[in-house]
Design goal:
This is Pyrophosphate--fructose 6-phosphate 1-phosphotransferase. GO terms for molecular function: 6-phosphofructokinase activity; ATP binding; diphosphate-fructose-6-phosphate 1-phosphotransferase activity; metal ion binding. By secondary structure, this protein is α/β, with parallel strands linked by helices. The protein folds into three domains: 232 residues, Rossmann fold (3-Layer(aba) Sandwich); 178 residues, Phosphofructokinase domain (Rossmann fold, 3-Layer(aba) Sandwich), CATH 3.40.50; 77 residues, Phosphofructokinase, domain 3 (Arc Repressor Mutant, subunit A, Orthogonal Bundle), CATH 1.10.10. 42% of the residues lie in helices and 15% in strands. The chain contains 22 helices and 15 strands. The strands form three sheets. The protein has a nine-stranded mixed beta sheet with strand order 1-2-13-12-7-6-3-4-5, with helices on both faces. A hairpin with a 2-residue loop joins strand 14 and strand 15. The two termini are 44 Å apart. Bound molecules: 1,6-di-O-phosphono-beta-D-fructofuranose. 1,6-di-O-phosphono-beta-D-fructofuranose (FBP) binds next to loops.
């Protein structure tokens, strides 16, 4: 295989480990805290997670452990959307296993959780792992979005794990995938099996975080990649002075990516879905906000600008949210009927009987291509595929219409030419930044220690991430601690709670303090490309979000 000069150079990068897991394996023990509770719905979750509910927080510390004694066989799954650094989680897990006992083995389940259900595996070797160190992507074993949910799928997963003589399964995934990990850990114990399950917090969306998980891996690299591109677009806009760029950014529900990119690039507008929801801002009000900036900038002869749009926005606009919730319930509960409908017209007719009058009327006001996009298949976890809804085009169209009206009324005298962009997939497989390379390797190494020290139902964790890597602290957080009950596919299900942008949190407050200036005055910031080699202030900085949340 031909490889680039950078890939070759990155093979030689040695990821840094936190001091509490960097020494001899025999000198690492685990300290356990007090029993924990879930974030909500304690009684319901206690009943559902009879064997795994309430476990204590775990931190690695110097002491006499027996993590080096065991010969272990572990299987690893990459689950859900790609996030830079997944290969390093596997490398850290592999190196940990081999450091503990060179006879230990690591299997990779191919193509995501379905690899476990269907027993599709490969065995890692030194040579194979070395080809993927510090690289982006999930192509080492592939990923998938299959949800382990039916009794047959759970039974098949246990059967595979037993056939392979596994001591543990490691699930590298986001909130939905780690919910699956929690259910699997519980199921194995319920069936009398000692096979452990450990999760690792992945997702570029940055929404798998809480008091104990400071960030999910991939967020750092993805935001830096998008910010480079946004900065380039800003400079182009400032050079040509003729386009308004509407950039939709990935992040299925939470606006963490949009907010981080705004802090890194200082665009004219950045919409924050959580604020839209909290203040019940309608679609028309969003359009008014954008038009107000366009008009003021036109008065300064600046007929150009940049607007950042979180891809989840549509689900937070009150009238859209109501519509999507009703669509989800109708399509979830009567899915078999819905899939039989062959045309868009038939779907609309069917929906006229299944959703409220208000929502139906609102659906009809949307451009047909957007309405169609709202009716596309949900993913296996019941999520609307917001990446495929062209919110940027919807907003450009509405802003154009509104400005034409305002021009006719003599309120607006400028020129408006909107261009749409969507940055999503281009950020998910970049070479992991030094931060993600180190963080992921540490998460994988920590996952090995959690297994070797006998824990199950935990998410590998690394804390104190704003400090240099040597001062990070590795440990584990019980999966049930992060869970609550939510409405999915028309019924209540246990799920890990998503962390949304907090309007009283540091990152949003920092943005709020300056956004009115950015809306009018060109204040663009150009972060440039991710740097892998050079001074630490250029190469090793964590995200602004992490700093503002933890300093
Ligand atoms: P995960 O939550 O699985 O990490 O995926 C996140 C994500 O990248 C979202 O930002 C995006 O909406 C979605 O995946 C796209 O999914 P797909 O890759 O299936 O198109």
């Amino acid at each position: 295989m031909e490889i680039s000069a950078l890939q070759k150079a990155r093979y030689a990068y040695q990821p840094k480990l936190p001091a509490n897991i960097a020494g001899a394996i025999s000198d690492i023990a685990v300290e356990l805290g007090k029993p924990t509770d879930s974030v909500a719905d304690q009684a319901a979750l206690k009943e559902l997670f009879n064997h795994t509910y309430g476990k204590p927080l775990a931190v690695f510390a110097k002491g006499k452990g027996d993590a080096d004694k065991k010969e272990l066989t572990v299987g690893v799954i990459l689950s859900g959307g790609q996030a830079p650094g997944g290969h390093n989680v596997i490398a850290g897990l592999y190196d940990g296993l081999k450091k503990g006992n060179p006879a230990s083995r690591l299997y990779g389940f191919l193509g995501g959780p379905s690899g476990l259900i269907e027993n599709k595996t490969m065995v890692f070797s030194d040579k194979f792992i070395d080809e993927y160190r510090n690289t982006g992507g999930f192509d080492i074993i592939g990923s998938g979005r299959t949800k382990i949910e039916t009794p047959e799928q759970f039974a098949a997963s246990l059967e595979t794990a037993k056939k392979l003589n596994l001591n543990a399964v490691v699930v590298i995934g986001g909130d939905d995938s780690n919910t699956n990990a929690a259910l699997l850990a519980e199921y194995f114990l319920e069936k009398g099996s000692a096979i452990q399950v450990i999760g690792c917090p992945k997702t570029i969306d940055g929404d798998l975080k809480n008091e104990h998980i400071e960030t999910s891996f991939g967020f750092d690299t993805a935001c830096k990649t998008y910010s480079e591109l946004i900065g380039n677009i800003e400079r182009d806009a400032n050079s040509a002075k003729k386009y308004w760029h509407f950039v939709k950014l990935m992040g299925r529900a939470a606006s963490h990516i949009a907010l981080e990119c705004a802090l890194q690039t200082q665009p004219n507008i950045c919409l924050i879905s959580e604020e839209v929801q909290e203040k019940k801002i309608s679609l028309n009000q969003v359009v008014e906000q954008i038009c107000s900036s366009v008009i003021k900038r036109a008065e300064n002869k600046e007929n150009f600008g940049v607007v950042l749009i979180p891809e989840g926005l549509v689900e937070f606009i009150p009238e859209m949210k109501k519509l999507i919730d009703e669509l989800n319930d109708a399509m979830g509960l009567k899915g078999a009927e819905f899939v039989e409908l062959s045309s868009f017209i038939d779907q609309l007719y069917w929906l006229s009987h299944e959703i409220s009058e208000d929502s139906y009327k609102f659906l009809q006001t949307l451009p047909p291509e957007i309405a169609r996009e709202l009716l596309m298949d949900r993913d296996p976890h019941g999520n609307v595929q917001v990446s495929r809804i062209e919110t940027e085009k919807l907003l450009i169209g509405m802003v154009e219409k509104r400005l034409a009206k305002l021009k006719a009324e003599g309120v607006y005298k400028g020129k408006f030419s909107g261009l749409g962009h969507f940055f999503g997939y281009e950020g998910r497989c970049a070479f992991p930044s030094n931060f993600d390379a180190d963080y992921c390797y540490s998460l994988g190494f920590g996952a090995f220690l959690l297994i070797a020290l006998g824990l199950t139902g935990y998410l590998s964790s690394v804390k104190n991430l704003v400090a240099p890597a040597s001062e990070w602290v590795a440990g584990g957080v019980p999966l049930t601690m992060m869970m609550n009950m939510e409405q999915r596919h028309g019924s209540k299900k246990p799920v890990i709670r998503k962390a949304l942008v907090e309007l009283d949190g540091g990152p949003f407050k920092a943005f709020d303090a300056v956004r009115d200036t950015w809306a009018v005055k060109t204040s663009f910031l150009f972060p440039g490309a991710i740097q892998y080699y050079g001074p630490p202030e250029v190469c090793d900085q964590p995200t602004k979000t992490l700093k503002l949340e933890h300093q």
